[in-house]
Please model this.
Amino acid sequence: MSDRLVSRRAVLAGAAAAAGVAAIRPQSPPPAAGAEAAGPSGDGLGQILAWDAHTHFSAVTGTIPQRVAQLLKYADRVGVERIVLFMGTSFIAQPTPEQFRQQNDEVLQGIAVAPDRVMGFVYLNPRYQRESLAELDRCVRDGPMLGIKLWIAIECSQPELDPIAQRAGELRIPVLQHAYWRTWGNLPGESAPPDVAALALRHPEVSFICAHSGNDWERGFRAIRAAKNVWAEVCGCDPTAGMVEMAVRELGAQRVLYGSDAGGRSFASQLAKVYSADVPVASKRLILRDNLRQLLAPAMKAKGMKV
Model:
């Protein structure tokens, strides 16, 4: 092979690599909230500045400000404008009231670092109803948080969840519930998508987010399909081809949300599910940002926050 041919191929490869990087590189610093950055995606989508429905302090280290700075640095690389943060620096499946207050205090510190980009959901343990309701008022009614995060303390179909769901409806905030089907059987107290659907059908005035869509998402989408007030979140599992397409087909694009589960997963791998999906550009816009923005808008407006 001639040196001239090798050189030509090297130039073409370099140009292709540069184009790929340019397609995902956001502006720096990020544009104002609600703006879109220009990016040659090739499909008319441009560079949507995504709102991430599901992030943690895991996989980043240091003080709370240092952790937030790292998360936002990675978010900037791939065009994530705002993140929803919850659960503090340690994961506790059955937190006492003192423990979930501590975790929420850490998230409140994170919000204070970058209030224009970091949003928070209050972490609760429904086994402590009175204390959970008081914490909900502290962090949402009287604080900057915009939703509720529930993990694996108790299956969410149980009646202990009803007072929390009712209060969420009064405050007009969404409830994000971890929902999984594990191949070896769920953990004690761990919810699955049918649990989310059961709770949602009891509280049709409340918006619920089925986090991870059950991990076994082909079953998960179908399990929540009849509960029109449940949104499917596509974060956490491998970026498998066809996931977003099925979510849109089964639920409609208006009921699908992008989330990353960072740092359990990367922003980029979870964005890839949406950007590579064979769905209309308008659907991708809804999934990446507009659906979550609509869910959070009532609480944001009540707090005087820019939507």
Residues 1-42 have pLDDT under 50 and may be disordered. Strands lie at 50-55, 80-85, 118-123, 147-150, 175-180, 208-214, 230-233, 256-257. The chain has one domain: 3-302. The domain at 3-302 is CATH 3.20.20.140 (TIM Barrel).
